[in-house]
Amino acid sequence: MIVARIVGTVVATRKDPRLVSHKLLVARPTDPHGKSEGNYLVAVDTVDAGVGETVLIVSGSSARMASGLKDCPVDAAVVGIVDAVEVSAGD
Questions:
Q1: How many domains does the chain have?
Q2: What is the pTM of this model?
């Protein structure tokens, strides 16, 4: 799983028919402390997340197992909205 912050949306008027009615979000991975790291990615939203929220993203074959995405051509899916992240003092 990837912890990320939603930074935008993608509008695609033409896309694979299996993606019609699915919201696409632009996310930026973060470290456990919330600092941005890594490249941006586009993920299909399954939990009604919005810009500015911290989310959990699954990728690869796990993304295709997310609710409503069976047999969809996706590589990343937002599967949770994060309320808080706790990291032990040693990390």
A1: 1
A2: 0.90
